[in-house]
Amino acid sequence: MLKLAEQCLERAQSTATKLGKICLKPAVPVAPPIPLPTSRHRRVCSDEGGKLSPFLPPEIFQKLQVVESQNSKKELTPLEKASLQNQKLRATYEARMARLDPSQAMQKTSLTLSLQRQMMENLVIAKAREETLQRKMEERRLRLQEATNRRFCSQVALTPEEREQRALYAAILEYEQDHDWPKHWRAKLKRSPGDLSVVTSLVSHLLSLPDHPISQLLKKLQCAVYSALYPIVSRAAISAGPAPGCCSLPPEANGLLAPGSRRLRSSQSLYCMLSPSEPSAAPRSLDGPPSTPSVPTLHSGPSSPLVDASSHLPDKDSSFEDLEQFLALSEPQTPGAKREPLLECLKSTVKDIHNAIDRLLSLTLLAFESLNTAASKDRCLACIEEPFFSPLWPLLLALYRSVHRTQEAAVSRSMELYRNAPPTALGIPAKLLPRVPEAQASTYPYCTAAQELGLLVLESCPQKKLECIVRTLRVICICAEDYCLQSEDTTWSGADDLLPILSFVVLRSGLPQLVSECAALEEFIHEGYLIGEEGYCLTSLQSALSYVELLSQGRLDK
């Protein structure tokens, strides 16, 4: 201990001596900061703080995606351990040499030879351990390769996808040799084969581990999709208009939230996609009466407004009959030459995303064979989609908004013109409206449904967005039933009255980007949901958006 204390004192003295010899540099006046050059990437001001929020370049996005796996703990190889030991020996040798006098040449030589011998022994032992480890790893690799070949049918000519799948499965087997948690999860699945909560926990745990081959494949596929989307969206934004990347919600979006509620941030989901150009309307007042000149007169009869599309829509008993024909009529006539390149890019991107999700699902089912049931597959798919779409949705939605720019502009124009229109002008019966006027000026009939619909743009997962639409329609039904009880009329026609109410909610939401959101959901939602309640709600919202789009074209005006 005394020798150790003496060494510490010597090190402290030598360090103090070195620090005392350093000459302090004269003070230099600080130059004013030079403004940084404007970045070539599009930026957008957020609605809440005015902060710049860019789309990250693909190379930065890829670094962010793999940083977790790089930060994971990695065991040192024998050679690396030997190198660390030699560094410690070298430091000890230098400290002891500094304490010897120049006359002690024999001791210095002895210390040098001893150091060289110890360092050489460490390297030789480390190399022997490294060779043994490599031999064992090669034997394990061959054994796992044989297991992979038994799992797959041996073919002479394999496609690149099949070769990659084999390599990934072999990597999974190798990973499971070093980790025990897959065995524990297989035991849980065996004990509870029909428990979907176990499936959710398993897939979530698997994708949270950055060193698992399936997680690494997910990051790789995300980077590939992002790299393909980035240049397309950047070019589309540059050619869309002179305002590069400014994205904000329409003014009427401020009124859809109750006092004290958190305002929607368009940059959360819409990111820096341009909003459709909104034509300037005549001056209007937010609190003005519905009969002001800024609000064109609509038919305000007891029947649904869809029935009164006289020369453009056939007479129908129900608003939901022949829905496909109605949606076809609502499509704007735009030149196909401008939209064709973006549309082809969108189709290619959608195909790549579907292939990527299928690959992740098939690899997960290979790793855990007990998940190969219909219910477990659907649950696995839902668990995979959320982490896959979360970083990609803003850029993907920007591409959808470029393709559906004309439709969004028409919807935005309708929201501008008819945001002060009374509910009865859209064909909502009086019995489905509150008898007592709303207490606050900022509230209106079905205000809670508009608030719920506004939360859709804050989500980045298709499944959660679809759940938000379902909640919106449920809130509409609850409000309609309450209003019926107030009017002492407990009967309402359901589907015939739902579409006018939903159209009113869409107008009040002030979100023209719902057109692109619904188009993306229709493409990426699992087909099993499209035939149930979720599919009905999504189709109803698309019908309401199509009706609102027609309002700007004057087809339904009287």
UniProtKB/TrEMBL annotation:
<dbReference type="GO" id="GO:0030139">
    <property type="term" value="C:endocytic vesicle"/>
</dbReference>
<dbReference type="InterPro" id="IPR037191">
    <property type="entry name" value="VPS9_dom_sf"/>
</dbReference>
<dbReference type="GO" id="GO:0005085">
    <property type="term" value="F:guanyl-nucleotide exchange factor activity"/>
</dbReference>
<feature type="compositionally biased region" description="Polar residues">
    <location>
        <begin position="294"/>
        <end position="303"/>
    </location>
</feature>
<dbReference type="Pfam" id="PF02204">
    <property type="entry name" value="VPS9"/>
</dbReference>
<dbReference type="InterPro" id="IPR045046">
    <property type="entry name" value="Vps9-like"/>
</dbReference>
<dbReference type="InterPro" id="IPR003123">
    <property type="entry name" value="VPS9"/>
</dbReference>
<dbReference type="GO" id="GO:0005829">
    <property type="term" value="C:cytosol"/>
</dbReference>
<dbReference type="GO" id="GO:0031267">
    <property type="term" value="F:small GTPase binding"/>
</dbReference>
<feature type="region of interest" description="Disordered">
    <location>
        <begin position="276"/>
        <end position="314"/>
    </location>
</feature>
<protein>
    <recommendedName>
        <fullName>VPS9 domain-containing protein</fullName>
    </recommendedName>
</protein>
<dbReference type="GO" id="GO:0016192">
    <property type="term" value="P:vesicle-mediated transport"/>
</dbReference>
<feature type="domain" description="VPS9">
    <location>
        <begin position="405"/>
        <end position="557"/>
    </location>
</feature>
